[in-house]
Amino acid sequence: MSLAKMVQIYDTTLRDGTQSEGFNLSARDKIRIAQRLDEFGVHFIEGGWPGSNPKDVEFFQRARDIEWKHAQITAFGSTCRARSTPEDDANIQALLEAGTTWCTIFGKSWTLHVTDVLQTTLSDNLRIIEESVAYLRQQGRRVIYDAEHFFDGYKQDPVYAVETLQAAIRGGAEMVVLCDTNGGTLPWEVEDILRAVKGQIGVPFGIHAHNDSECAVINSLIAVREGAIQVQGTINGVGERCGNANLCSIIPDLQLKMGYSCVPEENLKQLYALSHFVFEVANITPDEHLPYVGRSAFAHKGGVHVAAMRRNPRSYQHIEPERVGNQSRVVVSDLSGRGNLLSKAEEHGVEVEGEEVVPVLKQVKELEARGFSFEAAEASVALMLKRQEPHYRRPFELVDFFVNVEHRHGRGIFAEATVKIRIGDQVMHTAAEGVGPVHALDQALRKALLPFYPQLQHFQLSDYKVRILDPDNGTEATTRVLVEMRNSTSRWSTVGASANIIEASWQALADGLEYGLTMAH
């Protein structure tokens, strides 16, 4: 791919991303993410604002001791204060102390901000932009200039907005980045403004878009079409208010659909893992509906869709998911057709053919009408299919169970369960205590099974979720229980539903153990 097609990726997850509500990173977290971004192949990593907090100062201290393979680490800050000079400005001095080759500073493009926020004159604003950039250049730094609120500023006073860019260029900025800081500029406005100003800039330009009107990605793509060579954004689109332009969408859009080169071709397969790594480090539940990198991005639920996908995957997928490190999935629900279940059977190694899935399909639809949900409980579906195999024998069958909850003086609340199950020709009758009725039931069941299936000692209950489906029915409401189990190599989820929470729990627990004993690897 030619150099003319190269687009620089400027990641600001560690600075602008951390301005997102609920998205917090320690200095060590920032280093870990920066190293993954560097490995992925982005061109610039904005490490933070060293003049704003000690955590960012620590990041730049740590970053100096790391050999970065691809990325340039940049320090971010603002122009000097109004009616002052860069030499006397603590923020500018902090940028220098960060020790990075590149600095990114922002200044005001919108007359409203100059008069109402900075409370200075239009001419003084031009001065501080030019002098701040020039001072950093004199100190040996390379400078990217972020023109904050450029599009809003241009709409109010186009001549002055362009003058602010020219002031930065006179100071020595190597790149000017046009920012839609409030995120309210629409795509056709971005296109019209860029066509009007790009001939007046004289240096390479980039785009920095926010997502307040859900246009950050498309505005970034339009900017590239109009000549921008740098796109600023964040992994997963995190950022202040509604977030920044999502690099997890922009990079594959540019690289797979528009013919630009952003990261090394072989690295694009790391995109899914990178997205989830950032969520994990920030201790945030992933948004699995994100394009390209969400687990649901290539999940197929409708029966018609799945039937078509089985004939040709291109029928309902815009790219091959493996190109971004993702994979296709088939979801089973009351909207399913035979193809959904045949795909699920193939996935789990179950030997059933076309007509043999019809009873299971009917059962799925009937159970979902009663409150079951199989989208997150694929192990339950796999078991239903497995039971259709002619020679399949369940590892155990319930005869009956009894659960009792008591409060005793001096001991408090505890539960006791007895379970009678059939294993082959034998009937096991066991009892166990627990902190609650479900725990006691689980303990009694395991106690009965363990002599026959010693591998059970490696099964752990890793999650137990309860959802009330019809709260208007009060204590008679139907309860759905989702259980997740794991062993040393696998995880699986099963579901139960009933107006009796103990019965719903038994259904999920029993299926979870049966799947683990017969199908988990």
**What does the average pLDDT come to?**
92
Distance between the termini: 43 Å
* Radius of gyration from CA coordinates: 30 Å
| Oligomer status | single chain
The largest pleated sheet is described as: 8 strands, parallel, barrel
Major sheet: arrangement of strands? 1-2-3-4-5-6-7-8
> What structural class do you assign from the helix and strand content?
alpha/beta
Q: Which fold name is given in CATH as the topology of the largest domain?
A: TIM Barrel
Percent helix, as a range, is: 25-40%
Strand content: 15-25%
* Count of individual beta strands: 16
> Stretches where pLDDT falls below 50 for ≥5 residues?
none
What number of structural domains do the residues give?
A: 3
State the name of the first-level CATH class of the largest domain: Alpha Beta
Going by CATH, the homologous superfamily of the largest domain would be Aldolase class I
Total helix count? 17
CATH architecture of the largest domain: Alpha-Beta Barrel
Sum up the overall morphology in one term. elongated
